[in-house]
Amino acid sequence: MAEPLLHLSGVHTHIGPYHILHGVDFAAPAGQLTMLLGRNGAGKTTTLRTIMGLWQASSGTIRFDGNDITKNGTPDIACAGIGYVPESMGIFAGLTVRENIVLAARSGPVDSARLDWMLGLFPALRRFWNLPAGNLSGGQKQMLAIARAIAEPRRLLLIDEPTKGLAPVMVRSMIEAFKALKEAGETILLVEQNFHAASVLGDTVIVMDDGRVVHSGIMSELVADKNLQRRLLGLSLDTHQ
Ligand SMILES: Nc1ncnc2c1ncn2[C@@H]1O[C@H](COP(=O)(O)OP(=O)(O)OP(=O)(O)O)[C@@H](O)[C@H]1O
Protein backbone atom coordinates (compact mmCIF):
# COMPACT_ATOMS: atom_id res chain seq x y z
CA MET A 1 0.00 0.00 0.00
CA ALA A 2 1.27 3.53 -0.81
CA GLU A 3 2.57 5.53 2.13
CA PRO A 4 0.06 8.17 3.32
CA LEU A 5 0.95 11.76 2.46
CA LEU A 6 1.34 12.66 6.14
CA HIS A 7 2.24 10.19 8.85
CA LEU A 8 2.81 10.93 12.54
CA SER A 9 4.23 8.19 14.72
CA GLY A 10 4.79 8.39 18.44
CA VAL A 11 4.89 12.20 18.46
CA HIS A 12 5.47 13.85 21.83
CA THR A 13 5.46 17.62 22.23
CA HIS A 14 6.47 19.61 25.27
CA ILE A 15 5.67 23.29 25.61
CA GLY A 16 8.11 24.55 28.21
CA PRO A 17 7.61 22.30 31.24
CA TYR A 18 4.25 20.99 29.99
CA HIS A 19 3.98 17.61 28.28
CA ILE A 20 1.13 18.21 25.80
CA LEU A 21 1.25 15.46 23.14
CA HIS A 22 1.76 11.90 24.39
CA GLY A 23 2.73 9.71 21.44
CA VAL A 24 0.38 10.86 18.68
CA ASP A 25 0.00 8.38 15.79
CA PHE A 26 -2.09 8.95 12.69
CA ALA A 27 -1.98 9.11 8.92
CA ALA A 28 -3.61 11.50 6.46
CA PRO A 29 -4.07 9.87 3.04
CA ALA A 30 -3.56 11.90 -0.14
CA GLY A 31 -6.71 13.32 -1.72
CA GLN A 32 -8.82 12.90 1.41
CA LEU A 33 -10.21 15.24 4.03
CA THR A 34 -9.11 14.01 7.45
CA MET A 35 -11.07 15.48 10.36
CA LEU A 36 -9.23 16.07 13.61
CA LEU A 37 -11.79 16.18 16.41
CA GLY A 38 -11.65 16.32 20.18
CA ARG A 39 -12.76 18.22 23.22
CA ASN A 40 -11.29 21.62 24.12
CA GLY A 41 -7.68 21.26 25.16
CA ALA A 42 -7.34 17.79 23.57
CA GLY A 43 -4.19 18.84 21.68
CA LYS A 44 -5.53 19.46 18.16
CA THR A 45 -3.91 22.88 17.65
CA THR A 46 -0.68 21.64 19.23
CA THR A 47 -0.69 18.78 16.70
CA LEU A 48 -1.04 21.17 13.75
CA ARG A 49 1.65 23.47 15.16
CA THR A 50 3.97 20.50 15.70
CA ILE A 51 3.49 19.35 12.08
CA MET A 52 4.35 22.90 10.94
CA GLY A 53 7.47 22.96 13.13
CA LEU A 54 6.10 25.85 15.23
CA TRP A 55 6.51 23.57 18.23
CA GLN A 56 9.35 21.06 17.99
CA ALA A 57 8.37 17.43 18.60
CA SER A 58 10.45 16.18 21.53
CA SER A 59 10.32 12.62 20.17
CA GLY A 60 8.59 10.61 17.48
CA THR A 61 8.54 11.07 13.72
CA ILE A 62 6.58 13.19 11.26
CA ARG A 63 6.85 12.03 7.66
CA PHE A 64 5.50 14.05 4.75
CA ASP A 65 5.50 12.68 1.22
CA GLY A 66 8.01 10.02 2.22
CA ASN A 67 10.44 12.45 3.91
CA ASP A 68 11.18 12.87 7.61
CA ILE A 69 10.30 16.51 8.39
CA THR A 70 10.35 16.18 12.19
CA LYS A 71 13.36 18.42 12.69
CA ASN A 72 12.76 20.77 9.77
CA GLY A 73 12.12 24.46 10.33
CA THR A 74 8.74 26.01 9.51
CA PRO A 75 9.90 27.75 6.28
CA ASP A 76 11.19 24.44 4.91
CA ILE A 77 7.96 22.69 5.88
CA ALA A 78 5.93 25.41 4.14
CA CYS A 79 8.20 25.16 1.06
CA ALA A 80 7.62 21.39 0.99
CA GLY A 81 3.97 22.25 0.23
CA ILE A 82 2.12 22.36 3.55
CA GLY A 83 -0.21 25.35 4.00
CA TYR A 84 -1.42 26.28 7.49
CA VAL A 85 -4.43 28.39 8.46
CA PRO A 86 -4.26 28.95 12.22
CA GLU A 87 -7.32 29.78 14.29
CA SER A 88 -6.09 33.37 14.49
CA MET A 89 -6.14 33.43 10.65
CA GLY A 90 -3.06 35.66 10.18
CA ILE A 91 -4.42 38.10 7.63
CA PHE A 92 -3.24 41.71 7.24
CA ALA A 93 -6.13 43.91 8.40
CA GLY A 94 -4.73 47.12 6.92
CA LEU A 95 -4.20 45.66 3.45
CA THR A 96 -6.92 45.08 0.90
CA VAL A 97 -8.23 41.61 0.06
CA ARG A 98 -6.27 41.79 -3.19
CA GLU A 99 -3.04 42.77 -1.45
CA ASN A 100 -3.48 39.97 1.10
CA ILE A 101 -3.71 37.43 -1.72
CA VAL A 102 -0.85 38.95 -3.75
CA LEU A 103 1.41 38.76 -0.68
CA ALA A 104 0.49 35.13 -0.05
CA ALA A 105 1.71 34.04 -3.48
CA ARG A 106 5.43 33.91 -2.79
CA SER A 107 6.59 32.56 -6.11
CA GLY A 108 4.99 35.24 -8.29
CA PRO A 109 1.60 36.51 -9.41
CA VAL A 110 -1.34 34.13 -8.95
CA ASP A 111 -2.33 32.96 -12.42
CA SER A 112 -5.75 34.13 -13.54
CA ALA A 113 -7.32 30.66 -13.76
CA ARG A 114 -6.31 29.90 -10.17
CA LEU A 115 -7.56 33.29 -9.01
CA ASP A 116 -10.92 32.70 -10.70
CA TRP A 117 -11.17 29.29 -9.03
CA MET A 118 -10.35 30.75 -5.59
CA LEU A 119 -12.81 33.62 -5.95
CA GLY A 120 -15.43 31.15 -7.16
CA LEU A 121 -14.99 29.30 -3.86
CA PHE A 122 -15.33 32.50 -1.87
CA PRO A 123 -17.45 34.98 -3.90
CA ALA A 124 -17.51 37.53 -1.04
CA LEU A 125 -13.81 38.10 -1.59
CA ARG A 126 -14.47 39.21 -5.14
CA ARG A 127 -17.06 41.72 -3.90
CA PHE A 128 -14.67 43.21 -1.34
CA TRP A 129 -11.56 42.87 -3.51
CA ASN A 130 -10.32 46.43 -2.91
CA LEU A 131 -11.54 46.82 0.66
CA PRO A 132 -9.23 46.58 3.69
CA ALA A 133 -9.37 43.04 5.07
CA GLY A 134 -10.03 44.50 8.53
CA ASN A 135 -13.49 45.58 7.32
CA LEU A 136 -14.56 42.02 6.46
CA SER A 137 -16.89 40.00 8.69
CA GLY A 138 -15.43 37.17 10.78
CA GLY A 139 -16.50 34.55 8.22
CA GLN A 140 -15.15 36.56 5.31
CA LYS A 141 -11.82 36.97 7.12
CA GLN A 142 -11.72 33.22 7.61
CA MET A 143 -12.38 32.76 3.87
CA LEU A 144 -9.58 35.19 3.05
CA ALA A 145 -7.23 33.24 5.31
CA ILE A 146 -8.04 30.02 3.44
CA ALA A 147 -7.75 31.78 0.07
CA ARG A 148 -4.27 32.95 1.11
CA ALA A 149 -3.31 29.38 1.96
CA ILE A 150 -4.34 28.17 -1.51
CA ALA A 151 -3.00 31.16 -3.46
CA GLU A 152 -0.30 28.72 -4.52
CA PRO A 153 -0.89 25.01 -5.09
CA ARG A 154 -0.26 23.04 -1.87
CA ARG A 155 0.26 19.36 -1.25
CA LEU A 156 -1.51 19.51 2.14
CA LEU A 157 -3.66 22.07 3.96
CA LEU A 158 -3.85 22.24 7.75
CA ILE A 159 -6.84 24.31 8.82
CA ASP A 160 -7.79 25.07 12.41
CA GLU A 161 -11.49 25.55 13.22
CA PRO A 162 -12.60 27.55 10.16
CA THR A 163 -16.26 27.64 11.26
CA LYS A 164 -15.59 28.80 14.82
CA GLY A 165 -18.01 31.52 15.87
CA LEU A 166 -19.66 31.76 12.44
CA ALA A 167 -23.38 32.24 11.81
CA PRO A 168 -25.14 29.20 10.32
CA VAL A 169 -25.35 30.77 6.85
CA MET A 170 -21.58 31.32 6.89
CA VAL A 171 -21.01 27.76 8.11
CA ARG A 172 -23.00 26.54 5.10
CA SER A 173 -20.88 28.65 2.72
CA MET A 174 -17.73 27.29 4.33
CA ILE A 175 -18.99 23.71 3.94
CA GLU A 176 -19.66 24.34 0.24
CA ALA A 177 -16.17 25.76 -0.21
CA PHE A 178 -14.61 22.70 1.45
CA LYS A 179 -16.69 20.39 -0.74
CA ALA A 180 -15.27 22.19 -3.79
CA LEU A 181 -11.73 21.91 -2.38
CA LYS A 182 -12.29 18.19 -1.96
CA GLU A 183 -13.59 17.87 -5.51
CA ALA A 184 -10.41 19.61 -6.67
CA GLY A 185 -8.47 16.77 -5.04
CA GLU A 186 -6.91 18.78 -2.18
CA THR A 187 -5.56 16.86 0.80
CA ILE A 188 -6.81 18.53 3.98
CA LEU A 189 -6.35 18.00 7.71
CA LEU A 190 -9.17 19.94 9.33
CA VAL A 191 -9.75 20.71 13.00
CA GLU A 192 -13.46 21.24 13.56
CA GLN A 193 -15.84 21.58 16.51
CA ASN A 194 -19.01 21.74 14.43
CA PHE A 195 -20.05 18.10 14.18
CA HIS A 196 -22.45 18.71 11.31
CA ALA A 197 -19.63 20.23 9.23
CA ALA A 198 -17.32 17.41 10.28
CA SER A 199 -19.86 14.74 9.40
CA VAL A 200 -20.60 16.01 5.88
CA LEU A 201 -16.98 16.78 4.98
CA GLY A 202 -14.83 14.13 6.64
CA ASP A 203 -13.56 11.06 4.80
CA THR A 204 -11.51 9.81 7.71
CA VAL A 205 -11.54 10.97 11.32
CA ILE A 206 -9.04 11.17 14.13
CA VAL A 207 -10.30 11.88 17.65
CA MET A 208 -7.88 13.17 20.27
CA ASP A 209 -8.19 13.42 24.02
CA ASP A 210 -5.62 14.55 26.54
CA GLY A 211 -2.81 14.69 23.97
CA ARG A 212 -3.48 11.22 22.56
CA VAL A 213 -5.33 9.73 19.60
CA VAL A 214 -8.27 7.82 21.08
CA HIS A 215 -10.01 6.86 17.84
CA SER A 216 -9.30 6.78 14.13
CA GLY A 217 -11.48 5.45 11.36
CA ILE A 218 -14.02 6.26 8.68
CA MET A 219 -16.06 9.42 9.37
CA SER A 220 -19.36 7.86 8.25
CA GLU A 221 -18.93 5.09 10.86
CA LEU A 222 -18.55 7.65 13.65
CA VAL A 223 -21.56 9.59 12.31
CA ALA A 224 -23.65 6.40 12.46
CA ASP A 225 -22.62 5.54 16.03
CA LYS A 226 -24.20 7.96 18.52
CA ASN A 227 -22.82 6.11 21.54
CA LEU A 228 -19.29 6.31 20.20
CA GLN A 229 -19.75 10.04 19.50
CA ARG A 230 -20.95 10.60 23.06
CA ARG A 231 -18.13 8.58 24.54
CA LEU A 232 -15.40 10.18 22.44
CA LEU A 233 -16.65 13.71 22.15
CA GLY A 234 -19.06 14.25 25.03
CA LEU A 235 -21.76 16.84 24.61
CA SER A 236 -19.46 19.74 23.87
CA LEU A 237 -19.79 19.54 20.10
CA ASP A 238 -21.90 22.09 18.30
CA THR A 239 -24.42 20.11 16.29
CA HIS A 240 -26.18 23.14 14.80
CA GLN A 241 -26.50 23.16 11.07
N1 LIG B 1 1.62 28.02 24.93
C1 LIG B 1 1.17 27.09 25.78
N2 LIG B 1 1.72 26.95 27.00
C2 LIG B 1 1.28 25.99 27.86
N3 LIG B 1 0.28 25.14 27.59
C3 LIG B 1 -0.32 25.25 26.40
C4 LIG B 1 0.09 26.22 25.42
N4 LIG B 1 -0.68 26.07 24.32
C5 LIG B 1 -1.55 25.07 24.61
N5 LIG B 1 -1.32 24.58 25.85
C6 LIG B 1 -2.05 23.49 26.50
O1 LIG B 1 -1.97 22.36 25.69
C7 LIG B 1 -3.19 21.61 25.75
C8 LIG B 1 -3.68 21.38 24.35
O2 LIG B 1 -4.04 22.63 23.77
P1 LIG B 1 -4.51 22.76 22.27
O3 LIG B 1 -4.71 24.22 21.98
O4 LIG B 1 -3.60 22.00 21.41
O5 LIG B 1 -5.91 22.01 22.32
P2 LIG B 1 -7.11 22.01 21.28
O6 LIG B 1 -7.56 20.59 21.19
O7 LIG B 1 -6.70 22.70 20.02
O8 LIG B 1 -8.20 22.85 22.05
P3 LIG B 1 -9.32 23.90 21.53
O9 LIG B 1 -10.37 23.07 20.86
O10 LIG B 1 -9.80 24.50 22.79
O11 LIG B 1 -8.65 24.88 20.61
C9 LIG B 1 -4.15 22.43 26.61
O12 LIG B 1 -4.15 21.88 27.90
C10 LIG B 1 -3.54 23.82 26.62
O13 LIG B 1 -3.82 24.49 27.81
UniProtKB/TrEMBL annotation:
Which SMART domains does the protein's record reference?
AAA
**Which PROSITE patterns does UniProt cross-reference here?**
ABC_TRANSPORTER_1, ABC_TRANSPORTER_2
InterPro entries the record matches: AAA+_ATPase, ABC_transporter-like_ATP-bd, ABC_transporter-like_CS, BCAA_Transport_ATP-bd_LivF, P-loop_NTPase
Mind listing the UniProt keywords for this protein, alphabetically?
Amino-acid transport, ATP-binding, Nucleotide-binding, Transport
Q: Does the keyword ATP-binding apply?
A: yes
Which GO biological process entries does UniProt record here? Answer: L-amino acid transport
Q: Return the similarity comment.
A: Belongs to the ABC transporter superfamily.
| Listed name of the protein | ATP-binding cassette domain-containing protein
- Give the organism's phylogenetic lineage: Bacteria, Pseudomonadati, Pseudomonadota, Alphaproteobacteria, Hyphomicrobiales
